[in-house]
Each structure stands twice: as structure tokens, then as C-alpha cells.
Amino acid sequence: MNQNRDGQGRHRITAGSINYWPNRTGAVPSARSSEGGYVDYAEKVAGMKVSLKSNKFRDHISQAQMFWNSQTPPERTHIIAAFGYELDHCNDPVVYNRIVERLCDIDIELAKAVAEKVGAPSPTSQGKPNAGKKTNVSMTAYNAPKPTIASRRVAILVGDGYDPIAFNGFYAALKAAKAFPFVIGPKRQTVFAEGESKTGKGIQPDHHFEGMRSTMFDSVFIPGGSHIETLRKQGRVVHWVREAFGHLRAIGATGEGIKLVEAACEVDGIRFSAAGSHDVLDSCGVVTAGNAKPERFRAALDMVKGAKDFIDAYTFAIS
């Protein structure tokens, strides 16, 4: 029985650490009928006494094993980190020791990794045998007949002096592919393109860097232009790109925008397209093109793995 204690509007704080009965410490038993506790009406019932749940219903492990078996190494690392984070805030060894025991029924390596993080005794044997069955639940498994970026949210970082060719071309391509582009700038007042007069039309950002987080988007795009020299000096902008990279968002950059990504994503082995180069490089989810010609930005996309065109390679990474 879960003692909900009067619901959301209740202001009194009840002493004690357990809010349900029965519990392992025998604390706070429910009130007896003599104390005014609730009692079911003793109505006479008749019927067939049968088990309505099959043995398969009682199997709580096989599906969890199948899910774990289907995950890629990075996804498994993420799951272990999630267990470690939650149990790091638990100071009752009974709880985290029992969690590790249950994980032994799923996978012994999972249980060992979690035990090491949370301070539980390292297990030595698998519980329920793992048959190794897998299914298609990994986030890296792509089953759509054709890649799509429909409904994906893409942040485009700009400042005064952005490259209008790269910006306008990519913005139009995103809209045509039914994605949702959002312009993020240093302010919500009008931002002007490179060479554009301050009396020109410009663009009005949807958000500014201090008012929105990169984690709210599926991808980040940085067009080239002289605005990069200013953006590189702003710690919040560098953090924007670095945080997106850390959360495995696809990142795209053209021209001078590559310098900003290089400053934010200092990872051994990551490669970037050289300035002025026609090569398109996809490295660790970062797609760069040193030379962004107008024909590289078009509405008709051909998203395929290993695409040689920037717009195709980057949108495939977003998908």
C-alpha cells in the first residue's frame, strides 16, 4: 500500500523515510480498523479460482536482456552512466546492492560496471542465463526506407557579418525537408549579413545565446563569414558548440565557421576540411566544407551515407 498522504497540496512534512507498507524495516504500519483504518466490505463472492497470468508474464528479465543485447557500446556506456548517476545519490547500501543483484540477471558485465561506480560488491556470476537475443531498438538502427530530417530542430548560429549564401541556402534546404530551423544570435535585434548595409533587411534571430541552450536542438550549423572572429571570442558561443558536441548533436560548418568548431571541439583524431578546400569531411559527427559554393546549398536533398556534397552529408548526419 502506498500512503500518498493527501496529495500535491499537502504542506505538512511527515517524519520518517518510508512511505509505503509493508516495508523491510516494519516502519509505519497501516492503521487498524479499531484506529479508524479503511476496511473492505466483507461481501461474499463466488467464482473459479484460476491463474490468469501465464509463466511468460512472470518473466521480468528476458525483455531487459534483449534490450541490453541490442545496444551499441556507446549506448551501453550511457546506460551504465545513468545507473551510476542515480545510485550515487543513494546512501542506503541495501538499495544499490539489490539493484546490482537484479542487474546480474540481465548481464554480468553490466552489473560489474554499475557495482564499481556505486560501491556495491562486485558480482562474480550471471543470474538468469543470457541467450543473446537482440532486437532493433538501438538508436543507431535506421529502418526508414529513406533518411529524413522532418521535424528535426536545427540551430543556425549567426552574428553581424555572416555568409548569406551559406545561411540562405541551408535555411531553404531545411524548410524544404520539413525540418525546423532556428536562428540563434548574440541579440534578438536585426543581424546583418557580410557586406550588407545596416539599413538593409537583415534577419531577426529567434533566440539569443544566453536565452537558449544547444541541448534543445538536434543539430547546430555555423555558416562562414567575418562574424566568426567575434563569435570565437564569446565563451557562451564556444560553450554552445562544445555542449552540442558533447551531447552527440550533428554539427555542420562552412568556411570560417570551421574555426569556431575547431576551437570548441578539441578532440584527438577529429578532422576538419581545410580553408578553401572543396573536400567535405564527416568526422565524429562534425561535417565541414572549407569552400561553400552556391550550388552546394539546394532544396533537393540526396541524404546518403558517405555523400560527397556538404548539404547531403550534413543532413544525413542530422537524420
TrEMBL record:
Coiled-coil stretches: none
InterPro entries attached to this UniProt entry: Catalase_clade2, Catalase_clade2_helical, Catalase_immune_responsive, Catalase_large_C, Catalase_sf, Class_I_gatase-like, DJ-1/PfpI
Domain annotation DJ-1/PfpI: ranges: 152-261
UniProt KW Cytoplasm keyword: no
Statement: the UniProt record of this protein carries the keyword S-adenosyl-L-methionine: no
Cofactor dependence: heme
Limits of the Catalase immune-responsive domain: 55-118
SUPFAM superfamilies per record: Class I glutamine amidotransferase-like (SSF52317), Heme-dependent catalase-like (SSF56634)
Gene3D superfamilies for this protein: 1.20.1370.20, 3.40.50.880
EC nos: 1.11.1.6
Keywords: Heme, Hydrogen peroxide, Iron, Metal-binding, Oxidoreductase, Peroxidase
A Pfam short name: Catalase-rel
Record family assignment: Belongs to the catalase family.
Protein name: catalase
UniProt source species: Stereocaulon virgatum
